[in-house]
Each structure stands twice: as structure tokens, then as C-alpha cells.
Amino acid sequence: MEVVLFACARSAALDARTNNISLFHILESVSSPTFPIVLPPFAAVTMLTRNPGESETPKLIMKWNLNDEPIFEFPLDINFQGQIRARNLTDIGAVLLQGPGTLTATVFLEESWDAEWKIEVKKIGGPQIADTSTEQPAEK
Amino acid sequence: MTTTKINYDSAVATFAVANTPMFLLRKLRSDSAVERLTQLFSTDKLFSDLVASLRKKPENLTDAVEPYALLVALSRNGNLALLKELLKYPAPFSEWFSEIANILIQTSMPLTTTVFTPPQYLGAERNNFATNSPTKSQSVSAKLDH
């Protein structure tokens, strides 16, 4: 059994007619001039394949770290229903980011690392205030 | 409201010219009648009406296409066990029924959904977050780089 796709995007949609998943705006990096910030809700898609005879409901855990500090983790539901391929679509609520660095999502399959997605969290230059303290007062 | 009250006109038009099960299935997947069935009726209702329609001898094209439309609507809930269960029912008046059901089973890709709310938004920790939030003037929403 293996994870064949794991990706995060700003949003995802499921086509009711075809049962196809679409990802919109792949989540690669986030930038802000100030911290902390709130990363708006986003979606994570996990696709798995299994060999015949392997478990239909494997134990999956998604762990999130910011700069190697654990933020949260939760179990992922997957049910193959007799098929060899299955998918999970996860909606993740707004995430509080205390500072810049690397936000990493890792999917653990049966307690071993299997897939990873990294989001760069960048601090960018904010508005600058001109230093006027050295200016001479105007002569009268 | 029952599933028989749905307007099957477009499905009937498709059924009248369908020459293969794949053609019928492809057209029904985007048919408005199937869309309405999915929106208006529960899985249990679709299943029970489908079983009933399989037993009924069709008197017109609407009766003939109804089991197929119900089958495609039922397939949208992603429950493969239900589709497999349907194969046990005889379909003496719907000759493509088992073939279409098998196609739906074979091409189905199970999907589970999870909704997760990060813990800082729950209970007392939410207050911590509010305390740590930037002031209104400093508030910056996350910007995506493209």
C-alpha cells in the first residue's frame, strides 16, 4: 500500500457527475509582513493504492509541523470498499501561524512516513516609516 | 414526492436512441433527472424505488428508463456495497441493468471526506488565539504566492 498523491490547495471540488476531484490553487507558499497570521481554510487530497489482500481501512494519520514543532495531528478516514484505489479529501480550518518557516504536512501510513507536503511561510518587507529624527528644524 | 414524479423527458430521449449501455450511462451521468433524484431523495428511498421499478413491467419509455436513472443517481453516494447488493435482484425488463451496474462498480473510486478544525480555534485556546491576534490595524490576511 502506498500514497500515490498528497497535495494541498486553497480549495478542492468533487464533480458529482464524474466523481473526479479537482484542486484549485496549489498551496506552495504563504507570505506576510507581520506575524502571527491566519492561514485561511484549505484542502488536502490523499490518494492511495493497495495490493489485493491488504487492509481496506488502513490506519492513516496526518501530522502538521511548523519548523519541526508539532502543531496538530488527526486520523484520516480511508475506505477502499473492495477497490484497489481510494481517496480522502480533507478540509482543514484556518491555521494560526506564529512565525515564518516551513509548514509541513506528513501522512503516516500504518505509523511509517509515507508522504509529505511543504508550504513555505515567508516574512516579507512591510511598510517602512521614514526616519525624520536627524532633520534640522527649519530656520526662522 | 416520489421518484416517479421526476421529469424524465431528457432521459427518455436518450434512452430512445441509446444503442449501447455505455452510451446510456454516459448520457445519464449528466442528465437533469438524475441530478434531481440525487438532490431530492435519500439513498434508502432511491434503493427501495429502484428495487420496485426493476419488478415492474414497463408500459412506456419513462418506465423503461427509470431503473437506469435511479441506478446512476444511487451510484453518486459512493456506496459500492449497495451497488453490489443490487446485482442480486433480477432485472427481467432492464436488459442493460447488470452491465451498467457492473461498469459503475468497476469504475468507482471510493472517496472519504474529513473536516478538521485546528485546536487553537476550540474552547479556551480560542481565547489565547484572540489575545495573540494582531490588532485590527496590524491584521494581515495570509497571501498566496503564485
Helix content of chain A: under 10%
Note the beta-strand portion of chain B: 5-15%
The radius of gyration over CA of chain A amounts to 21 Å
- Structural class by secondary-structure content of chain B: mainly alpha
Characterize the structure shown.
The complex is a heterodimer of chains A (140) and B (146). Chain A has 140 residues and is mainly beta. Chain A has a single domain, classed as Sandwich (Immunoglobulin-like). Chain A is 0% helix and 58% strand. Chain A has strands at 2-14, 21-26, 29-32, 37-39, 42-49, 60-66, 69-76, 85-92, 95-97, 101-109, 112-123. The mean pLDDT of chain A is 89. Chain B has eight helices and two strands; from the N terminus they run αααααααβαβ. In chain B, α1 crosses α5 (61-75), α3 crosses α5 (61-75) and α6 (80-86) runs antiparallel to α7. The longest helix of chain B has 15 residues, at 61-75. Chain B has one domain (3-107). Chain B is globular. The chains are: A mainly beta (140), B mainly alpha (146). The interface between A and B is large, with 47 and 36 residues. β3 of chain A pairs antiparallel with β2 of chain B.
Short note summarizing the structure:
The complex is a heterodimer of chains A (140) and B (146). In chain A, 0% of the residues lie in helices and 58% in strands.
List keywords for this structure.
heterodimer; A: 140 residues; mainly beta; Immunoglobulin-like; five-stranded mixed beta sheet; four-stranded antiparallel beta sheet; 11 strands; 0% helix; elongated; B: 146 residues; mainly alpha; 8 helices; 2 strands; 5% strand; globular
